[in-house]
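Q: Could you write out the predicted structure for this multi-component system? I'm mainly interested in how the pieces pack against one another.
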Amino acid sequence: MAAVDVTTGRDIPADVQDFLDGAGVLVIDGEERAASGGATFDTVDPASEEVLASIPQATEDDVDAAVQAAKRAHLDGRWRTLPAAKKARILFKVGDAIQKQAESIAWVDMLDHGKPHKHAMGEMIAAANCFRYFAGWVDKVYGDTIPVRDGRFVYSTREPVGVCGQIIPWNFPFLMAAWKIAPALAFGNTVVLKPAEQTPLSALWLIRILKECGVPDGVANLVQGVGEVTGAALVAHPDVDKIAFTGSTEVGKMIMRSAADNLHKVTLELGGKSPNLIFPDAGDISRVAKKAAFACFYNAGEVCTAGTRLVVDRSIHDEVVEQVAKAADATKVGPGWADDTAMGPLVSDEQLQRVKGYIDIASGEGAELVAGGGQPEEYEKGFFLRPTVFDGVVTEMRIAQEEVFGPVLAIQSFDDEDEAIALANDVSFGLAAAVWTRDVGRAHRVAGAIKAGTVWVNTYGELDNPVSFGGFKQSGIGRELGPHAVEAYTQVKSVWVATS
Ligand code: ADP
């Protein structure tokens, strides 16, 4: 096959190039500066393999400076004590600014992560709406009066937790930053954000928007660097009150162990191995198969809720496998800037090698490769991988149990509803699941029986700000978004007053 120049169409807009040229900074107490040690690391465009920017590697001292800035801002109340209406107005303004600059920020995430620009645009609108949703919460969090006995008046308040250390992954860089910062600020906290080292860029854009819209200096701080250094320093810092983490289950466990020393409050949004259950009465098989392929291959499979296990009734198995393999082969793999791209590269060479390793493992375990399995031949550069489908997967295989975080789908079969539910639940994760059936009784029965924080019926992957999100089992602790975010970012104080 003739080589295709992957950089065709990579015409970086001037404002995005300006941003990249100045992206090598931390933001501490409102000041943009280099790391104290002077060390840097490069962030790379996974499609062209070009270096996008050199980013400061924050030291323990830098993390300490950021935490101290956030602590001062918390204690002096420069944000917490602003009138609720003013805080809300600022957060609404942030939402509008994100929407206005969405095209450019989407370019940044596309270059840094690899995703198609049109998908990144959807994430920008979701991020804008996240700020608007939480802006609406600012003046709606309050406590109770509690009747106890004569002569005593007891009431409760909900107060900010304080300094929130927030560590985010590389799959939805800007959106994850919004999911973390918007609720934390809405409920009066201050933050130190650490983006993933693979995708450090767009968080800086957000921090600048916050400042422009009136969030006081020191309230939202940005540190950059590898997890084992910068992330670990943040988690271990005694003046951090809460850690909010989204990432792998393995690192989530380490964070929880480390947070135990200071009894930091933690919320963890971790991995998944989400089952997508197709019953014989699911309707048009080719439509459902296309949706199932999209559920796994969207964002190159780098999604914690990806539908990576297709659990299919044996009577429709052959047709589903054929249609899913067809949909996988038809998925256009390419750079994010090409209009016809449905799936970009993986985020890094390391991730590509990891996912290829799982493809080898699945083949070695006896799973049958029915689509993909390697890199597309037309590109000489880039961490591209073809959407890959394995049939004949059984529960005991690692490909049925472990999170791959790449475009690799494992197909399992069942004979009846009980077996389908058993297969769905036979993993250590419990983040999400889907059920495809036209039988309303079955839909609710199976949704009720699945151990997962989110279940979709006849759809996949939908999330929205008013809907709480999080994991059962080893997929996490706590909930983000929706009313449950109040629990994550406030703490209750009870006040006893002697009235006689
Ligand atoms: P992945 O393995 O898919 O890269 P990780 O869970 O390692 O996902 O990364 C998610 C986030 O956690 C990133 O911001 C990363 O830098 C951070 N991280 C990784 N290791 C640690 C650690 N030991 N302590 C704190 N943060 C970490």
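A: Regarding packing and overall arrangement: The pocket of adenosine-5'-diphosphate is lined by residues 167-169, 194, 196-197, 226-228, 231-232, 235, 247-248, 251, 254-255, 405 (CB under 6 Å).
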